[in-house]
């Protein structure tokens, strides 16, 4: 296995060891909107590069992980870029999510033209690598895993969640998929769409996906006012707040984040919000 040396990416607030006795998965201090909107969370983060030559089933990528060992293991997240794109197109998500207490692997796909079903399989292969063979596998709780992605990578995250019901969460961003029905999906799913997306219009992608997922799975839909298909390719505060909150709630079982999901975001930046509130 060829893994590059770790490169430190330090968060400004420093890690805080806070673990409630009644929830062994709770990580980090009590959340605030200001903390979620900040460019980094409470954990300092390091990263390692993963060569495509050292893995099978996906094209390598980059792992971001909290440097702290005081809080034990963390949930793991695999993220796929979109059609014709590389991980660098959405790489801001890696340190952003990891700094809130997750081990994140941002993948390169086998080819940039891979379709959603292939990307879904690659996300699962990346999670298997992360938990079984990676240099940071001891930091990851293999029972608490999630997937995310942009465009066809978002469609791939739906495929992965459909194929592996043991996942704790899925976060498709501007997802694209020819399959519009996900009635079999049981994984808590947050879909973020762009109101002005002309490549994966929300009326024919995000909204049908959301509507087809059973409410019993827990689901949420955030539509960003005026945003195009490419909103995930630059740091987006609303997306970050909702993604972190969703992942903390369902990967870490941290009910302190319910307040950011129900009733959810509102205002000029959000053109639509739907969710299966109240959370159970």
From TrEMBL:
<dbReference type="GO" id="GO:0052689">
    <property type="term" value="F:carboxylic ester hydrolase activity"/>
</dbReference>
<dbReference type="Pfam" id="PF12740">
    <property type="entry name" value="PETase"/>
</dbReference>
<dbReference type="InterPro" id="IPR041127">
    <property type="entry name" value="PET_hydrolase/cutinase-like"/>
</dbReference>
<feature type="signal peptide">
    <location>
        <begin position="1"/>
        <end position="20"/>
    </location>
</feature>
<dbReference type="InterPro" id="IPR029058">
    <property type="entry name" value="AB_hydrolase_fold"/>
</dbReference>
<keyword id="KW-0378">Hydrolase</keyword>
<keyword id="KW-0732">Signal</keyword>
<dbReference type="InterPro" id="IPR050261">
    <property type="entry name" value="FrsA_esterase"/>
</dbReference>
<protein>
    <submittedName>
        <fullName>Predicted dienelactone hydrolase</fullName>
    </submittedName>
</protein>
<comment type="similarity">
    <text>Belongs to the AB hydrolase superfamily.</text>
</comment>
<feature type="domain" description="PET hydrolase/cutinase-like">
    <location>
        <begin position="19"/>
        <end position="278"/>
    </location>
</feature>
């Amino acid at each position: 296995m060829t893994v590059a040396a770790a490169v430190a990416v330090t968060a400004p607030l420093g890690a805080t060891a806070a673990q409630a006795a009644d929830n062994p998965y709770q990580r980090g201090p009590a959340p605030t909107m200001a903390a979620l909107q900040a460019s980094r969370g409470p954990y300092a983060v390091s990263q390692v590069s993963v060569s495509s030559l050292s893995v099978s089933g996906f094209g390598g990528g980059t792992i971001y992980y909290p440097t702290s060992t005081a809080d034990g293991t963390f949930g793991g997240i695999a993220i796929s870029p979109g059609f014709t794109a590389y991980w660098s197109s959405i790489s801001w998500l890696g340190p952003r999510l990891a700094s809130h207490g997750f081990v994140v692997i941002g993948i390169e796909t086998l080819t940039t033209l891979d379709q959603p079903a292939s990307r879904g399989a690659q996300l699962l292969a990346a999670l298997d690598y992360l938990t079984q063979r990676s240099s940071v596998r001891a930091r990851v709780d293999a029972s608490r895993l999630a997937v995310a992605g942009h465009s066809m990578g978002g469609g791939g995250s739906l495929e992965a969640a459909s194929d592996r019901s043991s996942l704790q969460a899925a976060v498709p961003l501007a997802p694209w998929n020819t399959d519009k029905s996900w009635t079999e999906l049981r994984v808590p799913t947050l879909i973020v769409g762009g109101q002005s997306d002309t490549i994966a219009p929300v009326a024919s992608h995000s909204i049908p996906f959301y509507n087809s997922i059973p409410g019993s799975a827990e689901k949420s839909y955030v539509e960003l006012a005026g945003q195009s298909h490419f909103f995930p390719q630059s740091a987006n505060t609303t997306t970050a707040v909702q993604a972190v909150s969703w992942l903390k709630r369902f990967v870490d079982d941290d009910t302190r984040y319910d307040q950011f999901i129900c009733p959810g975001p509102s205002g000029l930046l959000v053109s639509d919000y739907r969710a299966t509130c109240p959370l159970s």
